[in-house]
Amino acid sequence: MSVQWFPGHMAKARRQIEEKLKLIDLVIELLDARIPLASRNPMIDQILKNKPRLVLLNKADLADPEVTARWVEAFAQDGLSALPIDASSGKEVAQIVPKSKERLKEKREAQLRKGINPRAMRALIVGIPNVGKSTLINRMAGRSIAATGDRPGVTKAQAWIKVGTEMELLDTPGILWPKFEDEQVGIRLAATGAIKDEILNVEDIAFHTTKYLLEHYPDMLKERYDLDELPTVEQLEEPDQVVAVMEAVGRRRGCLQAGGMVNLEKASQALLRDLRSGRLGRISFETP
Ligand code: GDP
């Protein structure tokens, strides 16, 4: 998971997907349910043109279910069918074939009218690194196909994976770059583990994440780390107040250094680990 996106890489990624589009009936666009905006490729509409599309909001197990439901509605208003799933446990994955069929209904009905028996739908999974493409492919295949984790630059012969009798999936997903709009988007990508911690400073990521959690999910922080008092909304504007919470987290997690001081780097890593593993609770970083 170490893709550094430069213009040349983006052009190549786009070309690779455009080549594959010729082979398929449907695109399965995989987004992170916690950050459907930041995890969405900024050029996706131009790249996919009018290919029928199914949006999957993956890692829904880690996202705030109420917020995810609002995202499903927002996508529906844009004419896109979005399905929350959890590729690692397989939750809702069985819905992908029927939902895809629905997306291709008109074409299939037209074929049937002409007396053509529609062949299995051919689909391509696309998404940014670490969104869960390999996990989903393995889940749909019912066996281990690709090594999980992203392997840019490694090419191999393309093959179709049968998903039941009605769908065939390209075994290599399309890898796309995320949004890089501004620092806030970068923080969200880093907080959820979509980009490596080394790209941004881990204490900065944890600082902004703690601030966000204090604003939106204070009870989760309080419960998880047994904190007695949290800063008020006004106090959050003072960086020291946020850092004090990070230090309290560090003390609870035993991230101390010589002299009993909190090691803020270790505290930051512990907080992000708890967040990414879901131990803090189900948290969304973007709302429609
Ligand atoms: P890819 O780079 O898009 O192929 O992503 P991977 O399939 O390698 O997944 C990246 C990481 O996300 C792995 O650690 C997976 O176990 C994890 N992951 C994938 N799907 C889910 C999911 O639905 N829920 C959770 N909690 N983790 C997931």
TrEMBL record:
It is found in: Cytoplasm. CDD domains: YlqF (cd01856). Residues 14-178 form the CP-type G domain. Keywords: Cytoplasm, GTP-binding, Hydrolase, Nucleotide-binding, Ribosome biogenesis, RNA-binding. Its main location: cytoplasm. GTP binds at residues 58-61, 130-135, 174. Signal peptide: none annotated. The keyword Nucleotide-binding applies. One of its GO terms (molecular function) is RNA binding. GO terms for cellular component: cytoplasm. GO terms for biological process: ribosome biogenesis; translation. InterPro entries: G_CP_dom, GTP-bd, GTP-bd_ortho_bundle_sf, GTP-bd_ribosome_bgen, GTPase_MTG1, P-loop_NTPase. Required for a late step of 50S ribosomal subunit assembly. Has GTPase activity. Belongs to the TRAFAC class YlqF/YawG GTPase family. MTG1 subfamily. PANTHER family: MITOCHONDRIAL RIBOSOME-ASSOCIATED GTPASE 1. This is Ribosome biogenesis GTPase A.
